Amino acid sequence: MLGRVETRSVSPVFVGRVGELGTLNAALSRAAVGEPQALLIGGEAGVGKTRLVEEFASAARSRGAVVALGGCVEIGADGLPFAPFSTALRALRRALPDELAAAAAGQEEELARLLPELGVAAAARHDEEGMARLFELTARLLERAAADRTVVLALEDLHWADASTRHLLSYLLRTLRTGRLVVLATYRADDIHRRHPLRPLLAELDRLRTVQRLELARFTRDEVCRQVAGILAYEPDADQVDAIFERSDGNAFFVEELAVAAHEGCRTGLTDSLRDLLLVRVEALPESAQSVARVVAEGGSTVEYRLLDAVARFAEDDLLEALRAAVGANILLATPDGDGDGYRFRHSLVREAVGDDLLPGERARLNRRYAEALEADPTLVPADERVMRLASYWYHAHDPAKALPAVLDASVEARSRRAYSEQLRLLERAMELWEAAPQEVRAALRPVGYTEAYPPCGCDPATTPLRYLDLMAEAAVAGRYCGERERALKITKRALRLLQDEDDPLRAAWFWVQRSRLVHSLGRGSGREELATAQDLVRGLPPSEVHAEVLTHIANWSMVHAPGPDAYQAAERAVEYARMIGSREIELNARQVLGVLMVHAGHIESGLAELEEVRERALAEDAPSVALNAYVNLPSELEALGRSREAVPILEKGLDFAQRHGQPDTEAWVWGNLAESLLSLGRWDEAERACAAAGRVGQGVAVRGVHATLRAELALARGDLAEADRQLAAGQGFFGSHEPAPQHHLPLTRLAVQLAAARGRPLEARAHLAPVLDRGFPPGAQRDAWPLLLAAASAEGDARALPAADPGRAELLDRIRTAARTLATLAPVWQAHACWVRAELLRAEGRSDPDDWSEVVAAFERLERPYELARTRHRLAETLLFAGGDDERARAAELLHLVHAVAAHLGAVPLTEAVTLLAQRARLPLSPASRAACVDPVESLGLTSRERDVLRLVSAGRTNRQIAEELFISPKTASVHVSNILSKLAVSGRGEAAALAHRLGLFPPGAGERVSAR
């Protein structure tokens, strides 16, 4: 009987899935010409995902591709870190041993964390960039392995994936650029509930245009009929097909189970329970085979034969007979060649049903047997799985005395593999077991074996027992490394509550620093209060690593939020303390802060030299986190000094370094700085692409806020006010009131002023500016302060002819002048902005002079700032035309021609329109084609002569009634004219219409008084 079932439980005919298989084959064809492909295959349990992958794999092999399969391993309720990647890489190594060795050359010690066969993993530093380094090396390994042949990497059961596997897959799909590689992954769609950890990853990957997602539907009745015919080897009758289709609802696996059950005459014994359906053939096995099935169900996704032998405790012949029965009934399968001798359930649904049928005590007893067998003979399982599986078995055996040390050992193993998410989960499990474990077990544990991140606090870690606080410290850092900041913050707060009853200032200060970093990264505050508490705790204590770290973080905070003498002194003290205790990495970080503050203080070249030296030393001493900060800070300071061309190549190198060594946020900071420098250099299209890249990879609040600010600036320059408004609101939301750093809130204020001015709302622009002027600018804020004052002065100049803006203008202009006198002008770019602000202030007072604007233009001609140069040339041309004279007119024509060319090239729509209309009003040609005829600028807007007169009066601030009186028309007619004007100008109100007219210079001062009635 078992022989017949074996041949009929799976259809030899592949049914349906024509479209899905076609999509997969098309992806294989694209990969074969060097375009990496990524696909996600979702569907409910039993719908046929694995069968589809098998068919595709067979077709791919027939076309010469190498197929590497890896499945997510579930041990109890736990996933093994990187299990599917390790399995797939192992298969790839078997298929391409020489090629994979060449691809991994030079990086074997790091890649051994995923594939131990490459060598012994090096004892490396752990930091927030460590996991990213491993991910980058893995991506490049796969690209090199797939350089000359097509490789299919298939990862199954992603719904069981550990967090590290999910993070690696995300990184891989976001960064693959070359290679003949197909990456596909399957998951159970019906398991992905709202809180399932895979759900955010699927949402993230959906946003990538490079990832295709397939959802497998259930079979139709005709497909079920073909499947049943394949299983039974004859055409079934229609009633039988109808019954199976109705009961299975088209689920391929249920069709198989129902077809076999009907064939064996078990149909009448079935109930409507899904579990009963899955268990019916298990219960038909001999008792010994059922017992073995229960043992395998609790052992994990796959159980090695020798381990199964030790746990089942059968005589060898009896075990083999029981396995033969289970395999013959197609309940269990022998694992494929290459993965060792072992057994797994043919379908995970059956394993889950058998496992769920175990009694609680029975489950704990089986886990204890597994743990005892593995402790007695560690060779029973692969070496890279041993520690993790032992920890899981002891934990599910409910034995805290054995589970606590095993779980801690597993956390160290996870850390060594840079699986920080699993390390955090295991440390949380250790904290859960802590109180339940006997005191003598806890007393035997040592921090030297289980914690790395925690700095020494005056005790000998080799003789001092491990403390609960030590676990909390390690868990907090693991949470920060893997991006689980919320969990890390909760752990940190709990630790600080426990420390309230202890006299341990160094430990408390260390946790306050962690809390500061987490609060800031989560957007819950600036972190200053937490750092102040840490500083109070270490004050008066002997120099220590904790003390030096506190001082460095305070100096860094002050550099960003309150630059000045106090910040400078804090940075010098941090460098001094770091050198005293011999902490090279803390010293380099502190020197980096000091270098930035030196630039701000006017020691420009020495500050830049310090930053460059820190970058070189960090690279030479293998301190990637310091080097990454240098790749952000050095070009940022060059950009602030107007040296954008010097910044770009450093940023391009930094981008390559960040993609190999950094977290997504670090890469996003580099992209953002690159976008800013490209924007300054007039490479706007490239800047837009860099902005988009920053938005794709950035996750932290601050970097997303800066990204939104850059997008708003670009949109505003291109005339898309709605987009600029959206991005400004996003930036304000990311920073909020908790982030008062000048480098963030000053650009946001400037954008708000510029948007209000563009909409003809000068009073709103003043309201945005006033709080900043009230506070004053801190030292070193000139980078962002000069553009803000320029925007404010320019807005006042544009609003000069608006009567509503007259009250308070003189006072505001004086305040802008006073604020400008507090700002440094040590760099040429700041000197140029100072000249520009002075000229705009004079324009706002009606005292524009060509000589003033000539000085501004000359200052910007010495810089590489094409957009700013074009804007100042436009102002000079405008002033020359108002001055009159043939020479001035000829010079203005030349300037307008240059400005128009630059504005059109950049896509700066508002500037292009302003120049065009100014040229039209002055009857100046911008190109040879326009010399034939110069159109009246008002006519170019589509306005009638009457609407021209009405717009003059609207620009002068007249109401509809006043307009009606002056033009001898009714107020209703005046209202109709105003509505038509607003429509033709595409503006939302009278203020915007007036602002547009004044900005384009449609009416000279006083024109509103010279209107005749027609």
Keywords for this structure?
globular; mainly alpha; three-stranded antiparallel beta sheet; single chain
Question: In words, what does this structure look like?
Answer:
The structure is a single chain. The chain has 1014 residues and is mainly alpha-helical. It has 51 helices and ten strands. It is globular, with a radius of gyration of 36 Å. Strands 2-5-6-1-7 form a five-stranded parallel β-sheet. Strands 8-10-9 form a three-stranded antiparallel β-sheet. 66% of the residues lie in helices and 4% in strands. Helix 15 (305-312) packs across helix 18 and helix 28 runs antiparallel to helix 29 (565-581). The model is unreliable at 1-8, 267-272, 929-935 and 1006-1014 (pLDDT under 50). The longest helix has 21 residues, at 886-906.
Return the average pLDDT rounded to an integer: 86
Helix residue percentage:
55-70%
Summarize the main sheet: 5 strands, parallel
Sheet/helix structural class: mainly alpha
**Spatial order of strands in the largest sheet:** 2-5-6-1-7
Spatial shape = globular
Cα separation of the termini: 106 Å
Assembly of the depicted chains: single chain
The DSSP helix count reads 51
Proportion of beta-strand residues:
under 5%
Low-confidence stretches: 1-8, 267-272, 929-935, 1006-1014
Give the total of beta strands: 10
Radius of gyration: 36 Å
